[in-house]
Specification:
The chain is of the alpha/beta class. It contains twelve helices and eight strands. Strands 3-2-1-4-5-6-7-8 form an eight-stranded mixed sheet, with helices on both faces. Belongs to the short-chain dehydrogenases/reductases (SDR) family.
Amino acid sequence: MPPVDWAYLWGTKGESGFGSRSTAQDVTEGIDLSSRTAIVTGATSGIGLETARVLAMRGAHVVIPARTLKAAEQAKSAIISELPDAKVSTGELDLGSFASIRTFVDEFKSLNAPLNILINNAGVICRGLQLSEEKMELQFAINHLGHFLLTKLLLDTMIRTSEETRIEGRIVNISSKAHAILTDSTDFQKLNTENRMSNWHPTLYAGSKLANILHVKELSRQLKERRANITANALHPGVVHTQIFRNLRPAIQSYISICSLLMRPVPQGAATTCYVATHSRVNGISGRYFEDCNEATCSPLANDMALAKELWNFSESFIEARNKN
């Protein structure tokens, strides 16, 4: 039985001055984001929507891309109804389709808009084997590969923005404590092949969340090598009762609903994301993992830089191969 996390239960504040009971509004209090533009994926509900709402509240121009424009517009309307002066834009983006990602980025770049903050928040948990448009297991495709490509295609815009504005750019990957389920690099490497498509395995979600951390580890190294004024970090938002559980079996969903009383409310679930994306305490900090608005320790596998490089190379090769087809 795992040890009781008393700091989480009591909401003990860490070095940052915030803890598990802090909300997204708490951690952004007094922060002026009126000169920032942010893209938040998965912002039509749950912690993504709360993240977008709070960033807009603090003055940021928030871009909400979604699989359907209708869903994105509904999220925008929800924010505007509370914050009439909020700057919110929408777009169509299916993270399970490389073509959709490229189209979204092309349309965004055509606006010649700046980009200061990229929050890779969208995620799925699948029940059984499902495949993306490129025939990759869907959790890995959306949770990692889609965000990997989106980040890669937007990086030049973020670098240009940071150079022109002299404001540090921030890339934030929403991972999960579930990443620690995988403890052997060979297990991850087996998942990280096309053979995974032939048989669903429950560790695939954990593998995709491990990939989120490994992604920022290697990305951070490359950004430092390029001397880019951009940081890249990953985080565990806490266990929040959101729509991410909607694809699980009804019995499991019922169990989760019962357990939801012990889960983190959405405003608290979005706190670490907003903290890492906006707070001055995170200036210059890159390639790290956060939890409860404080730096935390990720698994040894998530700190394996050789594995991070291997994943990066696999991701680039897979995307390039599909681009030629």
